[in-house]
Fold this sequence. Notes:
The protein has 6 helices and no strands. By secondary structure, the protein is mainly alpha-helical. The chain has a single domain (about 5-25, about 35-110, about 115-185), classed as Four Helix Bundle (Hemerythrin (Met), subunit A), CATH 1.20.120. Bound molecules: S-adenosyl-L-homocysteine (SAH). The site of S-adenosyl-L-homocysteine has 17 residues, from helix 4 and helix 5.
Amino acid sequence: MRSDALLQIVLGAILLSVIGIRLYYMRSMRLPSKGRQGRGVKVSLRFRLGMLCGFALIATALVNPAWMSWSCLPLPLALRWCGAVLGVLAVCLLFWVHHSLGKNFSPQLRIRQEHALCTSGLYQWVRHPMYTILFMLSIAWLVGLANWLVGVFWLTIQTIVIGKRIDREEAELLEHFGDEYRAYMKRTGRFLPRLR
Ligand code: SAH
């Protein structure tokens, strides 16, 4: 099998794994939440539409790269494989953080009735490891697919969505967990582990 064909298969497997992990852990969306979540739902609808467009772009670049040849980058195959390795690492980490966060996960911001502060796994060092992993995946698509449109789309959408929600997310967690979250903020970094 040609090396670039194998690369497309690996990237396709990464895409399916990401979708599979997200769908599996979205089961917790049906759990009851505290208070009204009106604003959260609107953010989530835009968020889902953006994700759908992003996944459609990746699928198009994988199934028929010729359709998107106008946005291709002339990257060497070895570098594209580095993108795929980053993607595989991101999938493993995504599974780990979802496993740690468990039923506290929600694509929109929600405090569950039985919300517990997660400080295990990657959360012991970083407050938002899932967002860091989503950036890792965006870079994996950019480099692995060697397509600037896919990469720029994902990097832009992640920056906008995460930038809009992160302060509110921390404010909600602070309000709910109080001093426990304040102490947690002091010992962790936002996206990367805190340098001592
Ligand atoms: N920002 C986190 C989680 C994203 S999922 C990350 O990047 O890993 C979003 C949901 O997770 C929100 O409803 C938020 O209330 C919840 N959440 C975020 N950090 C949490 C933590 N340490 N413990 C429990 N729930 C958390």
